[in-house]
Write a structure and sequence with these properties.
It is a single chain. By secondary structure, this protein is mostly helical. It is 71% helix and 0% strand. The chain has helices at residues 6-42, 47-54, 57-62, 73-96, 105-131. It starts with 5 loop residues before the first helix and ends in a 13-residue tail after the last helix. The mean pLDDT is 80.
């Protein structure tokens, strides 16, 4: 067996473990939220009290669907932009190393391609969210 086969197998096992761990953490979050909601419902003595509470803004927010992500769209776009900028900078670093080591062309190409792809994805996501009115533009008070 070739020694070089151990590295890809290790990477695959590590990625599988990270995926499994992320899934378990998300699942435990959902279970905790469901238990909290159940305990919250048990505090009401009648259905009328519960219905009255659910008609309020706070009541709806407590029992909102836990699967929906309420993260601000601008923060998501900024996260994708950050990843793109880091990858582009890494790719530029590899390009600068081309004079010393020509074998850095492959990582440079991969990093630059991924970085530019992330930046384009952020731009397209932002424009789509803006056209769908998911992202609200914040204007200074002087313009309002």
């Amino acid at each position: 067996m070739d020694d070089y086969i151990i590295i890809p197998i290790g990477v695959i096992l590590l990625l599988g473990f990270v995926f499994w761990l992320n899934t378990r953490l998300r699942q435990s979050k959902w279970v905790r939220r469901a238990e909290m909601q159940k305990q919250f419902i048990d505090r009401f003595s009648s259905a009328a009290e519960l219905n009255e509470f659910l008609s309020t803004e706070h009541g709806r927010s407590v029992f909102e669907d836990s699967l929906t992500e309420r993260k601000d769209q601008r923060l998501k776009v900024l996260g994708v932009m950050r990843t793109g900028i880091v990858l582009v900078c890494l790719g530029v670093g590899f390009v600068l190393l081309l004079d010393d080591d020509p074998s850095t062309i492959f990582p440079a190409t991969i990093c630059l391609s991924l970085g530019i792809g992330f930046l384009l994805a952020a731009l397209i996501s932002y424009r789509a969210a803006k056209s769908l009115r998911v992202v609200e533009e914040k204007r200074p008070a002087s313009e309002a």
